[in-house]
Design goal:
There is one protein chain. The protein is mainly α. The chain folds into 2 domains: about 200 residues, no CATH class; about 70 residues, no CATH class. It contains 10 helices and 4 strands, in the order H-H-H-E-E-H-H-H-H-H-E-E-H-H. It has a two-stranded antiparallel sheet with strand order 1-2. The longest helix has 27 residues.
């Protein structure tokens, strides 16, 4: 559940959407194609709006400010590129390619953060333990505790803002550090009292991999293979330097964009389909 809304993706095995989101994140990071950045930005924003409504725009506004900094700072330090617009007083060139790269990195930043915002709704601490508990119990425990403490710190910070108004940032920081230390001691004592690492550990497993999980994992792997093939054969490659250009024929471009859009909206299709089914069932009662 998220804000009273049931999330269908959480009914899949944790491995399914872990593979899906890793493919999505890896594809936009390693391929470095701004067309894919925009697709991920739009689809992840639509899914975030579907879950959170208009409140997601508060986060989007903050991300937009940081992305603008990317676009402004990069041309100041990177002077590569052949299309020179002007020169700085120190003699360094301001190039169109460096501006394009800065803007692309800003869009990439927003895309990844929104993608992780959706990913966080499908992978709560218990699902991390279920996914990695048998492979690496320590890693699974560490990841689950990190995500748990992040959410708790946000809640504690909001409570502090309500109780102690008009305080300096240092006050809130010191209070959060104190809370973190106290919580760590309580957690350590609780784990020791429950016999952590004193006996053979059992593996937490709540869900089984079903046919739908296998199908989505296979689709994700085939999609990843398709992107790697298109990139390695130079049918869909984007370069920022020395000239900003996309190397792709028309058919390959249409194929990659269409398949990428279809793959990126899979979570949204799953959620909307489940909502429609639920409303049809409830309407018959």
């Amino acid at each position: 559940m998220w804000n009273g809304k049931s999330i269908k993706m959480c009914e899949f095995h944790p491995l399914t959407f872990f593979v899906y989101f890793m493919v999505m994140i890896g594809s936009i990071i390693f391929l470095g194609n701004p067309y894919l950045y925009v697709i991920v930005l739009m689809t992840s924003l639509l899914l975030s709006i579907y879950f959170e409504g208009a409140t997601i725009f508060k986060l989007l506004f903050k991300l937009l400010i940081i992305s603008i900094l990317f676009a402004v700072i990069n041309p100041l330090f990177s002077h590569e590129g052949m299309t020179i617009i002007t020169y700085f007083p120190n003699g360094n060139a301001l190039t169109l390619e460096s501006i394009n790269f800065g803007i692309s990195m800003g869009v990439l930043f927003i895309s990844i953060m929104l993608l992780f915002n959706v990913f966080n709704k499908t992978m709560w601490p218990d699902r991390w333990v279920e996914l990695f508990g048998n492979i690496s119990p320590t890693f699974a425990l560490m990841i689950s505790m990190i995500f748990r403490f992040i959410n708790r710190f946000i809640m504690v910070y909001k409570d502090l803002k309500l109780v102690h108004k008009d305080k300096s940032p240092f006050f809130y920081f010191s209070m959060l550090v104190t809370y973190a230390l106290e919580s760590s001691i309580d957690t350590a004592d609780s784990m020791a009292a429950r016999g952590y690492k004193t006996a053979k550990r059992t593996h937490y497993k709540r869900k089984k991999i079903k046919s739908g999980d296998i199908a989505l994992i296979l689709i994700s792997l085939l999609f990843l293979g398709f992107l790697i093939y298109m990139n390695k054969t130079n049918r869909f490659v984007f370069y920022y330097y020395p000239n900003t250009a996309l190397y792709s024929d028309k058919m390959s471009f249409v194929a990659v964009i269409a398949i990428y859009v279809a793959f990126s909206i899979i979570p949204l299709i799953i959620e909307i389909t489940e909502d429609i089914k639920w409303k049809l069932l409830t309407s018959k009662i």
